[in-house]
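Box 4.2: Ligand-aware structure prediction
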Amino acid sequence: MKLKLHQITKHFGDHVVLDNVSLSFEKVNTLVFIGPSGGGKSTLLRVIAGLEYPEAGEVEIDGEKVAFTEDGLLKHRRTIGVVFQAFNLFPHLTALQNITLPLEKVHGVPPAEARDTAQQILKRLQLDKHSQKKPAELSGGQRQRVAIARAISIKPRLLLLDEPTSALDPEMTAEVLDVIEELRAEGLDFILVTHEMGFARLVADQVAVIADGRIVEAGTVDQVFKNPVSQQSRDFLAKVLKY
Ligand SMILES: Nc1ncnc2c1ncn2[C@@H]1O[C@H](COP(=O)(O)OP(=O)(O)OP(=O)(O)O)[C@@H](O)[C@H]1O
Ligand SMILES: [Mg+2]
């Protein structure tokens, strides 16, 4: 995708959470945001998803500006898959229903077709045996895969993931990362926030380090991990790469 974030500013009360954030790529397939806790990564992802209004600035994807109006955002959100922790699965619905319900109600897909799509995707993510289980009956990794299945069921042009592997043990993390790696290889575009530096290095073609509401560093994996230029990203990387 072609991506342009232009002078995005967002406050919560008098706290500046995103401070004039600009970032532009002619072509990027997997963009990864890293940086210290509280820096603004999730907020920026939510602005890109059209879930949060910035006070100023523009988001442009493939040459199309996101209109931060009610109608504009509805249209935008339909084209983007999101897996955020705040977007938990519906607890009273089965894995299958968690996928078919939004397809039917939000995207107007006929029930039989929604069911076919959901079954195919569950199978592909090796969840077919679990399609009738409710979230509480699934493991953390399975739940996260259902959330990914739901996000890709709408055939998004872009998938946004906020810490898809937090709260997972190493084996479940590997399961989820495998799925992401596979979708990436198929050409789906991603913007993701992760604390897994190994994964960031593996999948990212561009990395942005966000601290104190600003992009303090952006570039390829090699540039950012091997030759960070800003002191803030050096400090951050020194800390997280120590262990
Ligand atoms: N709805 C909100 N109301 C008020 N403040 C908020 C809100 N959401 C986020 N913030 C504040 O904005 C700042 C950035 O938060 P954000 O969640 O974007 O950080 P983050 O980089 O994702 O951090 P983490 O790595 O811990 O997830 C934080 O100081 C946070 O307290
Ligand atoms: Mg966050």
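In the box above, the bound molecule is magnesium ion. The chain is about 40% helix and 25% strand.
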